[in-house]
Amino acid sequence: MINKVVAGADEAISDIKNGSTLMLGGFGLCGIPENCIAALVRKGVKELTCISNNAGVDDFGIGLMLQQHQVKKMISSYVGENAEFERQLLSGELEVELIPQGTLATRCMAAGYGMPAIFTPAGVGTEVAEGKETRNFNGKDYLMEYAFDADFALVKAWKGDTAGNLIFRSTSRNFNPVMAMAGKITIAEVEELVEPGVLDPDHIHTPGVYVHRIFQGANYEKRIEQRTVRPRN
Amino acid sequence: MLDKNGIAKRIAKEIKDGYYVNLGIGIPTLVANFIPEGINVVLQSENGLLGMGPFPFEGEEDADLINAGKQTITTLPGSSIFDSAMSFGMIRSQKIDLTILGAMEVSENGDIANWKIPGKMVKGMGGAMDLVASAKNIIVAMQHVNKAGESKLLPKCSLPLTGVSCIRKVVTELAVLDILPEGGFKLVERAPGVSVDYIRQATAGKLFADDNAPEMIID
């Protein structure tokens, strides 16, 4: 088996440069590549374009990179939980492209499937459609949306093996598998790194061919954004 | 006049046995609390879950298990988990029978605006544009008038659109209204104690209202 293991987050992201385009997995704070984000903050790279469903909160996730003014542009579907984000957006420091969540996921998928573009009805007749080619199929209008072209995809998995095969846990799967498929270089951080043969091939969500570097993550905080519970009775 | 739970209760009556349902954030989330006994419904959460269960007991929260509102939730026997592309695949291919979502404005031809107030609020559309572009059956849960007393049921939306000619039913604190294919709101039911005249005054868009429109029955 081809060994994809690197020592840690700092080595994994060492060739991410100022101006790189990154995909970051996760939905809200669920399933985000915490170790890679911390390493990017340490490295201090700037002018990044980040493709991620959300932009974290003020003091966690991509919010940590926003605090350090490392992000030039965000491509997201929903950014409602981050006051610093909103401040930078309204002051013009940060460029933002808001796109429908399904379009975001499918543009990742298209990149991973080797398809240059997809057609989706999401956004027809809205400002999302401005400047885009529209095609009619079977009486319904669809927008043409291009596959993403990202230099790096940073994903977080539950388990992975040294060959780069990944398994995600629960709803922390979200955007991670489609982004893993879409990066020119895909970096996976995992809670548990195992030897080949430990994971059942039938249970693999992301085949190792899509993963270029993998490392055992550490100190996962896994912050909960909205802690909702019901009473025991 | 209905409170938020009343709106949710009335919408819950629209859910039929065997439906797969996507509930948006806000009032739509409350609908889950009022699904009638004996009706089997599967709730979809577009971050990648079919079969959304109730909130966990205190101490059993799992950071890896959340809904689209980022709230901790649980799975149920028979739940399934998938990635975001598949989640919107099942939305686009109309496997989801009913979508319930909130709105800032709805127009008499079924346009909806719920994602942006220029210069004021820039949160984004999340999955709403995908849902309204593809769902065959959409119910909007909303307030009939805003805090300034202005109608949110309009001839034409003033805010940036989320979707065009896609809404067919609206449930507000005052009424249940259908949006007619040829345009216009048709009063279907009045909220308890609300007169047809009151609804007329609160509706800026074209309204077709029978003076004898029935009062809704909830509970």
Automatic annotation (TrEMBL), chain A:
Gene3D superfamilies: Glutaconate Coenzyme A-transferase
One Gene Ontology term of the molecular function aspect: transferase activity
UniProt entry keywords in alphabetical sequence: Transferase
Keyword Kinase part of the UniProt annotation: no
Superkingdom field: Bacteria
Keyword Transferase: yes
Family as reported in the entry's similarity comment: Belongs to the 3-oxoacid CoA-transferase subunit A family.
Protein name (record): CoA transferase subunit A
Species whose genome carries this gene: Pedobacter panaciterrae
